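To the team - flavin mononucleotide complex, inputs and output below.
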Amino acid sequence: MKIVIINGSARKGNTLTAIDAFMKGALEKNEIEVIQPDKLLIAPCKGCGACQCYKGCVDTDDTNPTIEKIAAADMILFATPVYWWGMSAQLKLVIDKCYCRGLQLKNKKVGVITVGGSPVDSIQYELIDKQFDCMASYLSWDMLFQKSYYANDRDDLAKDVKALKELEEIGKSI
Ligand SMILES: Cc1cc2nc3c(=O)[nH]c(=O)nc-3n(C[C@H](O)[C@H](O)[C@H](O)COP(=O)(O)O)c2cc1C
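Output:
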């Protein structure tokens, strides 16, 4: 499969560690590209409606090439730190821009990895998972997994052997 991973974190920290562990397992059988929104120039959606949800975006920045990669993928992995009880703005920015080709993003396989600085029974993980459940239902996505991890300092997840193993196993199963 072609897998596109969207990394919602700008720092080399826990989200990247989670992505690397997943990739360790998934690389053998899949073609993977990681999108780093913080390195791209993507203006927020203006809601102009010119795209009609299939024509692409009127913006001439990195929006269209980025959404083209997502539209061409068999699987999308959304990876995000928890920021203020939700996904990061970097990830949300890309998701909002997916609207410009929303009709071509149906029936994807999808995974979600969330890393936050609070224990995984906290409300933020539930809120984020529910938001992705709604998108999945709207776009008929096949939700393969939604995983949450508790890691605050930049290198916390790298010390969590159980989490790394779990992510590698998930990658292998794809
Ligand atoms: C702006 C900001 C907001 C945050 N808000 C939350 C939050 O609401 N809940 C939470 O559990 N952690 C919160 N955190 C902690 C991060 O989710 C946590 O440190 C995470 O491991 C960061 O991932 P990274 O290392 O990939 O950047 C916040 C961190 C930042 C910088």
